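SEVERITY: medium
COMPONENT: batch folding queue
REPORTER: lab tech (J.R.)

DESCRIPTION
The queue accepted two submissions in a row. Attaching both inputs and their returned structure tokens so the on-call engineer can compare them side by side.

ATTACHMENT 1
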Amino acid sequence: MTPTLVVITGPTGVGKTATAIGVAQALSAEIISADSRQVYRDIPIGTAAPTAQELAQVPHHFVGMLGLDDYYSAAQFESDVMALLPRLFARSPYAVMCGGSMMYVDAVCKGIDLLPTISDEVRRQVYACYEQHGNDYMLAWLHELDAEYYAIVDRNNHKRVIHAIEICLEAGKPYSSLRTNTVKERPFRIVKIGLNLPREQLFDRINRRVTAMMEAGLVDEARRVYPYRACNSLNTVGYKELFAYFEGKMDYDTAVARIQKNTRVYAKKQLTWFLRDADMRWFAPGDTDILSYIRRQSGEVTD
């Protein structure tokens, strides 16, 4: 049987963790977290990281392994996962990758272009310019460095703009010249499972989860990591709004409502991304047909 990577993804709050644990237990597999924030320590509440009880049910990888000020990227994730998978497949014909970070999922499933590692010096230089001059200045800089990528970049996503500038400076050539978008061949089968719910039900789950996070101590968690607020690890929904609350820019109720709204917006962005993938098969979380679909697609059983 060809080794099979089962990918379980979908919008935030839909129930990926519980589904992945059930699937991994049934397949005697281990779980790879494809979440660009759960990889960091000290922020388990705001990132909805697997609990100690969940971690005890199935071995997990890439959860809480980095400090908040450590640099990590989709390219590094691809490299680390590709190095790990042979060991997982030596123990089971299946491995489960669970998470909703779009670039992380695509990095493993499709591969990512080989890009230069950004030096601390270049990163500090570029972020200092952004802090001093703002996004319009950075867009003009990107246009000067790489007009081709400037034409297609999401100009409201300052992180994409900044990263493109970093790559141009580090490589000494336009970012667009390094982008091949070639899908890499993998020595294993990939079965993609997308989880989704009716929009109203999903948004209700998101709202209730944010409320549960607040009750679980998200404010105290955010206060503990506030000194690291400039780190990219904390440039995420939940912490940004609470940092604004700490700084007197909004009141508590507004911060909570904003977290709920911004989480819903992010969920829609995830769905837009994943719905374009023709290889994705969609299920409701916990659907009992998921396992039989995986076993058929992997070749373990035939109709």
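ATTACHMENT 2
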Amino acid sequence: MAKVEVGGREFHYERGGSGEPLLLIQGMSGTHVSWGQPFREALEGSFDVVAFDNRGIGLSGPVEGPFTIVEMAEDTVGLLEELELGSAHVVGISMGGMIAQELALAEPGRLRSLTLGCTYCGGPGSRLMPRENVEKLAAGMMSGDRDKAIRASYEVNLSPSFRADEDAYAGFHEMAISVPARKATIELQAQAIFGHDTSGRLGGISAPTLILHGTADGVLPFANGEQIASLLPGARFEPLADVGHMFWWEQPQRSAELIREHALAAAR
């Protein structure tokens, strides 16, 4: 297991493939395993892929106090420096997309390209998780039954069409139990998300940008992708019909191909 120290904190990361560097930034409660092997392997055929655990989550060192999305963006800068990567193609999903937004605004020279997936920018018009899904997740977590909590997360994060295949749950369940996601850290991540707002600054992003968002997203509704696209008129917006929040899990090959095409075009 590979570790680096950034700002006095230990971060776990995994690296594979060859080609131009590509940094994957996960969302709330997500770890390096949350990308799934099919998606990562599809990217590793074209890129030197780095996947890491955000501060306090997974196999990275614990945290004791609150933090912000901006501070998490600073973590990514330190990680790139420790790995001796001056710049990289950056893919951020959900909370990771918020981190990527702040990274792109603060350190434009670090990004060769930017992909924002199933994320939001905050501010007027943005929409967080629908109440019924918040209640479903809360009930699962408060039950004290790990399997009930995982099932609730599955139902909120994946589309009805994907969940129609009952066999699909096994892989999600295995991923969810394989690496720890500390409840206290998830709560701190939620606090950071509530404070996120780049809506008035998105026009300052200069990196070539691809926006991916599932129309059946039950975590951060599709309207958020439309809003980000409206604030980044030079970006390419790819709606994913009938796909849920975890689009890379539902459609790993297609998701990887869209990112590959975008990043390689930027490289040229």
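NOTES FROM REPORTER
The chain has eleven helices and eight strands.
No errors were logged for either attachment.
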